[in-house]
């Protein structure tokens, strides 16, 4: 599950932050009266101030203390669960071994200067592990905020709004290792081991899949499915289980071979009733890639089920305890800088300058700066990379295959209400709405956003292709109609019940790559055929597809490729200097 995404390193044309309608607080406004509009402003890091060549972010007040509740008791109670035991899983140990390989690598006689475009999780990961191996990364970010797909901004009231609703799963071994390496494991707020779905035919009610802690995988997941009799009947469960048998027995080879089928096609081929797709996999498809089962590759679902069923805590979810730029990205930046690396914001790339032999000479920034290095990494979204590819590279098969990889549009919405909503949980909720994917009351699930008196719902609006060009007002009106079904006693479309205090709409026309069938052969390895040029990003070849885990793993694999190429890269340096002196 990815959350919404925003572009990060080279062009701002692929993302936009919607305007915010803000209701004036205080007696002058009058109840329910919209008194004006203002653009979403006040970027993170001191209202969007330029950081130039250094990152200066205040992290004062890392988590607000929770105010004492007053008045009547609320239904919703914040209860964080202990961190699950993840260290004994095969995937966690493999991720830990890969991390350790950078720290234990022989120190280079001459560290490589590696220029990385894009300070999302892929770029930050690449820089972090290169620094661990003794090299000198220079990370360039086009915008004035860290995070890429996990970017967030602070508005004029001091409230944060994010690019997406981000969930950290137990089945994210490289993410979990990264938190441990940085010493910030306590910043994940683990929730009850459940998956909670709204019931469209019973407005205001939910159906749960509860994973018993006493059972190992896969029995905890099997029992969670068997005990839920509200969404699937027993005959449907049996047919679904029989349909899954080939995937369970065929292993990874079988899973990868299913990339040629959509979820809907595969279910029908396996004799699984359409109602199973409707009841469960519409919600899962939208949560995993923001599209419906008639478009999504079945490989995505099988990989998710494989991780969730093989690991006891694989499907257990956690929320970050605050905004991602400060609570996750800044510790990575601090680590990079402590080892001699550099991070620059407001460094947008205009073009890639080539040597006579077609290798990269330098990156030219919009402000005219020329950035040279010993190796270059593009850790931007694939759509940005395609815009900046030199003409002479475009017919190379490695790059030409990227044409099939296209970002999916998505919209992330934050709505602040004038009261505390009761019909929710301290958890991620699957809306099963035709317009909405997942949502959460962030005033309950997240420490920094906690409020005892008002709810702030964060919602993923997907699929968004037909809505991305519509006005924020139209999107909010449609969202309120859907919320009136999820909160029938508390929210009405006309705001005759709960009133909107303000909202933010974040549109991303090109988010994570759209995992439609037959994309897998088009995903590139991190090492390109151009000597000294590498790629990182969740669209590159790694086993976790379009996710935060995939982005971080891609960065590690990219750093690993560069470390392995040290000798040929260092041998190129005298040649580059000679060419530079001649020109």
From TrEMBL:
EC assignment: the record states 1.3.5.5
The domain of life for this entry's organism is: Eukaryota
- Kindly state one GO CC term assigned in the UniProt record: chromoplast
Q: Which reaction does it catalyse?
A: 2 a plastoquinone + 15-cis-phytoene = 9,9',15-tri-cis-zeta-carotene + 2 a plastoquinol
Q: Where in the cell is it found?
A: Plastid, Chloroplast; Plastid, Chromoplast; Membrane
The record's Pfam families line, in alphabetical order, gives:
Amino_oxidase
Q: Which GO terms describe its molecular function?
A: phytoene dehydrogenase activity
Membrane topology per the record?
Answer: Peripheral membrane protein
Presence of keyword Cell membrane? no
Cofactor names from the entry are: FAD
Principal location: plastid
The Amine oxidase domain sits at 121-562
**Alphabetically, which GO biological process terms does the record hold?**
carotenoid biosynthetic process
Question: Which keywords does UniProt give here?
Answer: Carotenoid biosynthesis, Chloroplast, Chromoplast, Membrane, Oxidoreductase, Plastid
Q: In which pathway does it act?
A: Carotenoid biosynthesis; lycopene biosynthesis
UniProt xrefs under PANTHER family: 15-CIS-PHYTOENE DESATURASE, CHLOROPLASTIC_CHROMOPLASTIC, PROTOPORPHYRINOGEN OXIDASE
Of which family is this protein a member?
Answer: Belongs to the carotenoid/retinoid oxidoreductase family.
**Complex and partners:** Homotetramer.
Protein's name according to its UniProt entry: Phytoene dehydrogenase
């Amino acid at each position: 599950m990815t959350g919404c995404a925003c572009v990060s390193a080279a062009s701002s044309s692929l993302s936009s932050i919607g305007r915010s309608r803000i209701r004036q607080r205080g007696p002058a406004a009058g109840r329910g009266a919209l008194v004006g509009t203002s653009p979403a402003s006040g970027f993170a890091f001191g209202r969007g101030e330029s950081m130039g060549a250094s990152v200066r972010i205040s992290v004062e007040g890392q988590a607000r203390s929770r105010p004492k509740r007053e008045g009547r008791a609320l239904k919703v109670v914040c209860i964080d669960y202990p961190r699950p035991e993840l260290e004994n899983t095969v995937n966690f140990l493999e991720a830990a071994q890969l991390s350790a390989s950078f720290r234990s690598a022989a120190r280079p006689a001459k560290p490589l200067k590696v220029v990385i475009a894009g300070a999302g999780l892929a770029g930050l990961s690449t820089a972090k592990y290169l620094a661990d191996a003794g090299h000198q990364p220079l990370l360039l970010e086009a915008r004035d905020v860290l995070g890429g797909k996990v970017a967030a901004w602070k508005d004029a009231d001091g409230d944060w709004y994010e690019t997406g609703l981000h969930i950290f799963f137990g089945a994210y071994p490289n993410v979990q290792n990264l938190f441990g390496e940085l010493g910030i494991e306590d910043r994940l707020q683990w929730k009850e081991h459940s998956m909670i779905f709204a019931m469209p035919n019973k407005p205001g009610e939910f159906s749960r899949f509860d994973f018993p802690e006493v059972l190992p995988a896969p029995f905890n997941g099997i029992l969670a499915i068997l005990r839920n009799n509200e969404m699937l009947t027993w005959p449907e469960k049996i047919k679904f289980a029989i349909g899954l048998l080939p995937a369970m027995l065929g292993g990874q080879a079988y899973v990868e071979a299913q990339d040629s089928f959509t979820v809907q096609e595969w279910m029908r081929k396996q004799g699984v009733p359409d109602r199973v797709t409707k009841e469960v996999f519409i919600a899962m498809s939208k949560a995993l890639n923001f599209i419906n089962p008639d478009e999504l590759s079945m490989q995505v679902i099988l990989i998710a089920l494989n991780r969730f069923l093989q690991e006891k805590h694989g499907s257990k979810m956690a929320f970050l305890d605050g905004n991602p730029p400060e609570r996750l990205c800044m510790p990575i930046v601090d680590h990079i800088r402590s080892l001699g690396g550099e991070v620059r914001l407001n460094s947008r790339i205009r073009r890639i300058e080539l040597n006579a032999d077609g290798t990269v000479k330098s990156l030219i920034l919009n402000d005219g700066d020329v950035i040279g290095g010993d190796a270059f990494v593009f850790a931007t979204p694939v759509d940005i990379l395609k815009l900046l590819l030199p003409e002479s590279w475009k017919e190379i098969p490695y790059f030409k295959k990227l044409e099939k990889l296209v970002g999916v549009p998505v919209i992330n919405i934050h709505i602040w209400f004038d009261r505390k909503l009761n019909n929710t949980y301290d958890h991620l909720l699957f809306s099963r709405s035709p317009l909405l994917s997942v949502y959460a009351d962030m005033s309950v699930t997240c420490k920094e956003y906690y409020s005892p008196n008002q709810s702030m719902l964060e919602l993923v609006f997907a699929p968004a292709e037909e809505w991305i060009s519509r006005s924020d007002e139209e999107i909010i009106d449609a969202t309120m109609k859907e919320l009136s079904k999820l909160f029938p006693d508390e929210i009405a479309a006309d705001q005759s019940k709960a009133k909107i205090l303000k909202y933010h709409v974040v549109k991303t026309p090109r988010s994570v790559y759209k995992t439609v069938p037959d994309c897998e052969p088009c995903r590139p390895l991190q090492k390109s055929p151009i000597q000294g040029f590498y790629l990182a990003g969740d669209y590159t070849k790694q086993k976790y597809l379009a996710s935060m885990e995939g982005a971080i793993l891609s960065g590690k694999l990219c750093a690993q490729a560069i470390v392995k190429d040290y000798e040929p890269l260092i041998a190129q340096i005298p040649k580059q200097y000679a060419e530079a002196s001649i020109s």
